[in-house]
Specification:
With 361 residues, the protein is an alpha/beta fold. The protein has helices spanning 12-31, 49-59, 74-78, 122-127, 129-134, 166-169, 181-190, 195-203, 221-237, 243-258, 260-273, 279-284, 295-308, 314-321, 326-339, 347-355, 357-360; strands at 9-10, 39-42, 63-68, 81-85, 91-95, 110-115, 136-137, 140-141, 147-152, 173-177. It has two domains: 3-177, Rossmann fold, CATH 3.40.50; 181-360, no CATH class. A hairpin with a 2-residue loop joins strand 7 and strand 8 (140-141).
Length: 361
């Protein structure tokens, strides 16, 4: 058992909900004159720790100041030293304030995000004891409305993480963030990522996050987002290439991000997707459009139909969807409602839910 097994694991969507609550709870504690509680999230690389913290803080109206703890020596946390001469001719050592900290007198709502905290030395982590408990470092004090959050990798991630001192552990509420293909797909769709990526992760959810410590490139939600943003440009690059040249180009470009094996599976999936039925024909004649034999093509078609669904097309599309295995029907209706919550109250969706309530429960 690792130390992280002692912390309740949580999905990205659940962590978003927890942070939303904890930010509000800290605001109430501060208004009542009580000490606020910092939050600490642990997790593997590329799972979205910093992204979620930034998103929740900025949504709540906070300006984020970031300290990368692994870049600091213990004395740097306190600030640079300056020697000044007093009126009586004696000298005193004065500490400056690190530029990464918010001004003490600001009236803005601010947050201090201490990232890569476990990657810092134990001496540096100890330097954060006062700021995480009292909101102060020496004579410097954080603004009264400051929220403190921290994040970092675990020892088993092999990123150089160090054991956190017990006193510092006790300053935080702790979360262990684990990857979720479903949450990743929802996030990517909201970001406008190409459907090829989202449908592939539905087809191969185990490749959403698969760290191989023997490799330099491996799939994570971060790398899938990067692939999604880059695919349109890749397709332009290969437009005038021979098929063999295009295959080589695509493989090298994608394998550089997620490794050879996952890249090969993703490229094969994208090739199969070209066998999808014409979507206009499918919407015009759902009963007459056959279901593809290949499951990868079915996943691609369902993903594409989610983007084609409107109030005008949903009845026709749902007729074709109901020809699929129940598992794929669940994928369509669930992803559709995640993409647009208004569809939860659409008569077509409500009828399907009523009919399949036993499956969903």
């Amino acid at each position: 058992m690792t130390d992280m097994d002692k912390i309740q694991q949580i999905r990205p969507k659940q962590f978003e909900q927890q942070l939303h609550y904890k930010i509000k709870a800290n605001e109430q504690l501060q208004a009542q004159g009580y000490r606020k509680k910092p939050q600490m999230v642990w997790g593997p690389p590329g799972v979205g720790k910093s992204e979620i913290m930034y998103q929740q803080l900025t949504t709540a109206g906070y300006k984020v100041y970031e300290m990368r703890a692994n870049l600091y020596d213990p004395i740097d946390v306190r600030g640079g030293i300056k020697i000044i001469e007093l009126d009586n001719g004696t000298y005193r050592t004065v500490y400056g304030t690190p530029e990464d900290l918010p001004p003490s007198d600001t009236t803005e709502k601010v947050a201090l995000l201490i990232d890569e905290l476990p990657q810092a030395t134990r001496a540096t982590m100890n330097a954060f004891l006062q700021v995480t408990l009292d909101g102060a470092i020496g004579q410097y004090t954080l603004p009264i409305h400051t929220q403190i959050l921290a994040g970092g990798n675990r020892a088993e991630d092999r990123t150089g993480a160090n054991e956190m001192p017990t006193a510092l552990k006790n300053r935080f509420d702790h979360y262990s963030l684990m990857p979720s293909a479903e949450d990743c797909i929802h996030y990517l769709r909201n970001k406008g990522i190409t459907e090829d990526v989202c449908s592939f992760l539905r087809f191969k959810p185990n490749l959403c996050h698969q760290i191989d410590h023997t490799q330099y490139a491996f799939p994570t939600p971060r790398t899938w987002e990067n692939i999604g943003h880059g695919l349109p440009l890749m397709m332009k690059e290969i437009k005038d290439m021979t098929p063999a040249e295009a295959d080589g180009f695509m493989h090298y470009a994608i394998a550089s991000k997620i490794g050879d094996g996952p890249a090969g599976e993703f490229i094969a999936f994208c090739k199969d997707a070209k066998q999808m039925p014409d979507l206009d024909d499918l919407i015009a004649d759902p009963k007459g459009t056959p279901v593809p034999n290949s499951m990868s093509v079915v996943y691609s078609t369902v993903g594409a139909l989610i983007n084609e669904t409107t109030d005008k097309t949903i009845k026709s599309i749902s007729k074709w969807i109901k020809k699929l295995e129940t598992e794929m029907q669940v994928v369509y209706f669930k992803d559709l409602c995640q993409k647009d919550k208004d569809y939860r109250e659409h008569e077509v969706v409500e009828k399907w839910i009523d009919k399949n309530a036993g499956i969903l429960n």
